[in-house]
Automatic annotation (TrEMBL):
Coiled coil: none annotated. It comes from Davidia involucrata. Residues 294-319 are annotated as: Disordered. This is Disease resistance R13L4/SHOC-2-like LRR domain-containing protein. It holds the Pfam family LRR_14.
């Protein structure tokens, strides 16, 4: 088709389409938005896409069999590249030169093995980076921290050391939304809040030597399939009221050894996050109580009564 003034081309979801002719985009030099999302059988993009120099948005979400994307080096105006749940096996060539790119979405792209070293620092205008559920990709903390304009981040860390390294960098404080994962993918497509997901803690030899550092402004925390200490504060000192004032949703599933969630004494501050709205506990065979009051040794007289904190669970909606 000859459409030299066409600005947007939104393909209807065509699950049966397998290829697009190379000449299809030759006469669409003004095209700014191209959406091929949902073309599940599409395996190759035509090379003529490389010449769409006015393109600002390229959407390829759900193209599960997509194997080939031509070089994007000439698409200097590109602002958004969406490859969610696509079949690409490598980052498209030429990405390092797209200095105007603001959104790179590779959520749940399972076949990508790595992000080329040095790529992310070149994309200094990125505001949204989705690498969550990319279980084979590890990004050095230094490259994430270099993204000063980033507002939304989804990322999966392969081990606890890398996870802690990023959290300790404090880079997350500049983000409005994030999903930080350690050894897990959960296929939650939307990124609506500040959330952390931990899996398989305690099953490696080195795990027991490290406390988990957690962002203090997280709104949701999920812990799955872990071997935990007897109390949450032994798992992470960050899990107390003062450090987790924003925590609203807390889920612990399929974890062993934990006996109580919070323990405290007469002289320690009340540990329960006061803004908690949802507490979900499932398949915790060793859990016996939510709280444990530990008496401190006194020189004389009877022990003081356990402290009572007004407002505990006052916002809780689901248990």
């Amino acid at each position: 088709p000859k459409c030299p003034r066409l600005l947007s081309l939104l393909f209807p979801i065509r699950k049966g389409i397998t290829e697009i002719s190379n000449s299809f985009f030759v006469h669409m030099q003004s095209l700014r938005v191209l959406d091929l999302s949902g073309s599940e059988k599409l395996k190759r993009l035509p090379d003529s896409i490389s010449n769409l120099k006015s393109l600002r948005g390229l959407f390829l979400n759900g193209c599960r069999n997509l194997e080939y994307v031509p070089s994007l080096a000439e698409l200097k105006e590109l602002r958004e590249l969406f490859l969610q749940q696509s079949g690409v096996r490598a980052v498209p060539e030429g990405l390092e030169g797209l200095v105007n790119l603001k959104c790179l979405d590779l959520f749940f792209v399972q076949d990508i093995k790595c992000i080329p070293t040095g790529l992310l620092p070149n994309l200094s205008h990125l505001q949204c980076l989705r690498l969550d559920d990319c279980i084979n990709v590890d990004i050095p903390t230094g490259e994430l921290v270099s993204l000063r304009q980033l507002e939304m981040l989804g990322v999966n860390f392969s081990d606890l050391h890398k996870f802690n390294s990023y959290v300790n960098s404090q880079h997350w404080q500049r983000l409005s939304h994030y999903r930080l994962q350690c050894r897990i993918f959960n296929s939650k497509q939307s990124l609506r809040c500040r959330e952390v997901t931990i899996s398989n803690y305690g099953r490696g030899e080195l795990d027991q030597d490290h406390d988990i550092a957690l962002p203090t402004n997280m709104q949701e925390l999920s812990i799955f399939s872990c071997i935990l200490p007897t109390s949450l504060l032994d798992f992470s000192p960050s899990l107390n009221n003062n450090a987790c004032k924003d925590l609203e949703r807390f889920k612990i599933f399929y974890c062993k050894r934990i006996k109580q969630l919070w323990s405290f004494t007469a002289t320690t501050s009340w540990p329960v996050p006061q803004n908690l709205q949802i507490l979900m506990l499932q398949n915790l065979p060793d859990l016996t109580r939510l709280f444990k009051y530990e008496e401190e040794e006194e020189e004389e007289g009877p022990p003081p009564p356990p402290p009572r904190e007004s407002g505990t669970f006052s916002l809780l909606k689901q248990l």
